[in-house]
Structures are given as C-alpha cells and as structure tokens.
Amino acid sequence: MTGITPLIDGYRRFKKTGWDDQRERWETLAKGQSPKIMIIACSDSRVDPATIFDVAPGQTFVVRNVAALVPPYETGGGFHGVSSAIEFAVTQLEVTDVLVLGHASCGGCKAALSRTFEGSDHGHGAFIDSWISMLADVRDEVIAEKGPDAGAEAVTEMEHRAVGVSLDNLKTFPFVQDRLDDGRLKLHGAWFGIAEGDLLVRDPETGAFNPA
C-alpha cells in the first residue's frame, strides 16, 4: 500500500462501524459542536489526544503544533493559527477548561535544548527555530539546573517546563485572564509517557507533575 491508501481503507472501516453504528450521533454533531474542553497538544504522530483520553468526536476541541506551544498574546501582523483557535474555543465555544498536553520524547523540546537562541541555525529549519525560541528562557534554566550533559533527564524537564510556558502564555490573552478571574475557565497541564502509557498531571501551585 502506498500514499493515502491506508487512510482510505481506514475510512471504509470507519464508515461501516463508527459512522453507521452511531448515525444518530453524527447527525446531531452535523448541527453544531459544543465541547467543554480544549486540548493543546503536540503534532507528534504518537500522541493523539482522542486516543489517550478515549474521547469521541464532539467532546474536545483540539489544536496541535510542535511541542504543544502557546505563543504569548500579540496583535501584530502575521497569521496566528494557535491564537485564533484559542480565541474561538474560549470566546465562541465557551469551553470551561483548557488542557496543555506535553509528552515524552518530544522532538521540539529536544531541539530547543540543543541550541542557544543567539541567532544561529542548528539545522532544525527557520520556522522550527523561530517557534521553539519560545522556550529559550526555560532552556537556560534547565541547562543551569541539570547541566549541559543531563541527557534524557534534561529533555523530560524541558517537556515539563514547556507545558508551564504555554500555561503562562495563555494567561497573557485578555479574554482568557478575564474568564480565569471570574471562574468561567480553568487551565490544566499534563504530560504523557509514550513507552509506559503514564499520564502525569501538573500541580497548578508547585508546577510538579504527579500521576493521574
């Protein structure tokens, strides 16, 4: 099988089972969506939120990008895909919870750890280098705390810190902060271990990640 043939085959299986068996549900979803949870996750092919959390279509509003990063609020020029998704979820869908999901073996976090962000290109590509520069400050913190040769331990710490960066950046959006202040919205962080299948949930007070 080549190209998208596996996808077409998968669609045919889905149409016979997942769609036909729940036709009524799909007809309801066709009229609109009303998820209460937004998930910001990594684009990594191994970390599918619907699979990890066993949720059905219509239950979560998901945006995925390299390292599950949220940029800080700004209204300058350019295209703001993640920011527009956050705005839509919070102000239009009125989600009550936003979860930032990091994960083990994150290529984006590993790439961020391997550079100094002093304008040099480390071969990741211009778009990737620009994107992961959001992790510059925590990268320096991790290096200072763990040392330059900490290896896998440093990468895991970067993955945890990246979740914190995204949560902090979410609070820079005025419409997010307004809803945090009046209790309409809550922010959460978590990290998924691919090999073990473990889910760690971030303590909002200490930043520590604990088993779910």
TrEMBL record:
Gene3D superfamilies: Carbonic anhydrase. The keyword Metal-binding applies. Zn(2+) binds at residues 42, 44, 103, 106. It catalyses: hydrogencarbonate + H(+) = CO2 + H2O. Transmembrane segments: none annotated. PROSITE patterns: PROK_CO2_ANHYDRASE_1, PROK_CO2_ANHYDRASE_2. It comes from the Bacteria. GO terms for molecular function: carbonate dehydratase activity; zinc ion binding. It is an enzyme of class 4 (lyase). Keywords: Lyase, Metal-binding, Zinc. GO terms for biological process: carbon utilization. The keyword Phosphoprotein does not apply. Binds 1 zinc ion per subunit. Its EC number is 4.2.1.1. Its cofactor is Zn(2+). Belongs to the beta-class carbonic anhydrase family. PANTHER family: CARBONIC ANHYDRASE. Reversible hydration of carbon dioxide. This is Carbonic anhydrase. It comes from Sphingomonas prati. The lineage of its organism: Bacteria, Pseudomonadati, Pseudomonadota, Alphaproteobacteria, Sphingomonadales.
